[in-house]
Design goal:
By secondary structure, this protein is an alpha/beta fold. It is 38% helix and 16% strand. It has helices at 2-35, 65-82, 104-116, 128-141, 170-183, 197-211, 229-240, 253-266, 280-287, 292-296, 312-327, 336-357, 389-397, 516-526, 548-556, 571-574, 611-632, 643-651; strands at residues 53-60, 92-99, 121-123, 145-147, 163-165, 188-194, 216-223, 246-250, 274-277, 302-306, 364-366, 384-386, 401-403, 406-408, 420-427, 430-438, 442-444, 490-495, 505-506, 513-514, 534-539, 562-563. Helix 2 packs parallel to helix 12 (336-357), helix 3 runs parallel beside helix 4 (128-141) and helix 7 (229-240) packs across helix 8 (253-266). It is elongated, with a radius of gyration of 43 Å. The termini are far apart. The relative contact order is 0.09.
Amino acid sequence: MNEMLHMENNFNLVAVLLFGAWILIISNSSICGYEDESGLSSSIPKRLLTPVTVNVGALLAYNTTMGRVAKEAIEMAVEDVNNNPSLLNETQLMLTMMDSSCSAFIGTAAALELMKKNNVAIVGPQFSVLAHVVSHVASELHIPILSFGATDPTLTTFQYPYFLRMIQSDFYEMTAVAAVIGEYGWRSVVAVYIDDDYGRNGISALNDALGNVRAKLFYKAALPPGASKSDIGSVLMQLAMMESRIFVVHMNPDAGLNLFSEALHIGMLSSGYAWLATSWLSSALDSTILDYDTMNSLQGVIGLRGHIPVSNQEHDFTVRWNNLHKAGSVDARLNAFGFYAYDAVWTIAHSIDTFLSQGGNISFTDYPQLSNANGSKTELTKLKAFGGGPKLRKILLQTNFTGLTGPVKFDKNGDLLGSTFEIINIVGTGYRKVGYWANESGLSVVPPEIRGPNSHTIRGVGQKLYDVIWPGENKLVPHGWALPNNGKHLVIGVPRKVGFQEFVKIIEGTNMMKGFCIDVFVAAVNLLPYAVPYTFVPFGNGRSNPDYDELVQQVALKKFDAVVGDITIVTRRSKFVDFTQPYIEAGLAVVAPLRERNSSGTSAFLQPFTIEMWCMIGASILVIAAVVWSWEHKTNRDFQGQTKKQVLTVLW
């Protein structure tokens, strides 16, 4: 009995071992079939063993304008993907979010934590500084990163092969800024930026773009990260003393709004100034209801805003977001970064779906280089490399679908194709669109998505920008250049004439001048692309016309910077001053007074001369007649005969 029981137990043990071996064989064959990328047939369908869940991470700064919107958008996107039966089959995305707290150090630690959790891709980070650090690690561990906020143009796939950008690069944004500057003919620009990777590399791209429109950076004003209002005020005071009046502001929303507040206090938002802000300003306007003082400091500013083409998807998502916001389910107001973050999740979802359909295997392996030299383990050994990373990256670069932001495609640098910006003008309590910029077609008042082969029939297609209201409620385009506040005005000498004041005349009781020469001078100054302050100084005692040689000599003596008046160009004066081109030439002329006289009647021919003049003419005739008669009457028979005949002949 015991023996039979023992044999039965042995049989059961053998059966269990055989069943386990069969399961192991089937499992191995399934895995091999699941990982087969050679095109060979496998015994089990490729998606039969698809994972139940796939981990996706997100690295944000929760307490920022961009982060608050992106957090809500990413969560909505994951929910929509998981509820979509046509995508990922039965697989669900599992989202893990970490807060970088606007710190590169904390953000790096948070990124490492995300990579420990076997995430196949990460949405973020939103800042360029952190993206540089995280991209190094992601490239080693083969984990793709899709950033919706890091715009630094040096973040490319050449250096960071696993970094992809879901937003327009600063390379394109600065090209748009340069196009606006070139449109208004400005030649000198001051850049104000945050001194980090985002600021420095963005302004470097601006410098390159300005060269294409024959402009240049006059000065670069760097502010430290986290600059205080006093730091900003000190920098602005230096800029106010400079000649250029065109400023490009490239920084984060908090520092940017503080800068404009200080600029208004100093008086740098008055007529003659022009301010251009990159897309940080539009994100602040879209996400937050700014108070009166803040909006007052932004009047007349030109900004850029990422263009989201109008579509049914965009409209439905915006309505849905607004309804959730009204219901209190969503705290932040929607801005462009919300659209980019939403599309980033869908880009990952489409790529994972293709990855699994092609038999991709989601597996992670140890990274042996993280062990100590003596072989001991460290906390970093929990970081594992994603085996399917290279294949998923390749699929991501081939992405082609239509999202909320329009067609989603990447170029060879990992940047989003189809860069388009809206040009906005801050007026009153909001802003208005004054045009668009597209990488393919440049500036236009017509949205790029409706321009095409027949766009010449669209009204306004040839116009580049609508009229702008500039700082100081000025409709005239700023010259872009002026003498600094502490600069010296030009001293212009003007002759104080007594007679013939049509050329130059002093308006009595004032220091103002008028006349033809003054009008020519003012018109020439107004044609300059920058403002030139000047002061007219009269020369002479006012009782007699001044000596013009002495007046011109004052320029050589540096008492006057220039002289304006009816001054004749002669050789002796040209030896020590330079003259402009002649703008009037007198030539040969006779000057006579104009008198009103009665020219009717038979005596009109007598009016040109006086009575005395006529008597002189008559006496001259008689003298000449007597001389002629004395010479001719002795030899010429016509002057001989009766006295009456001789008198008539002489008078004839």
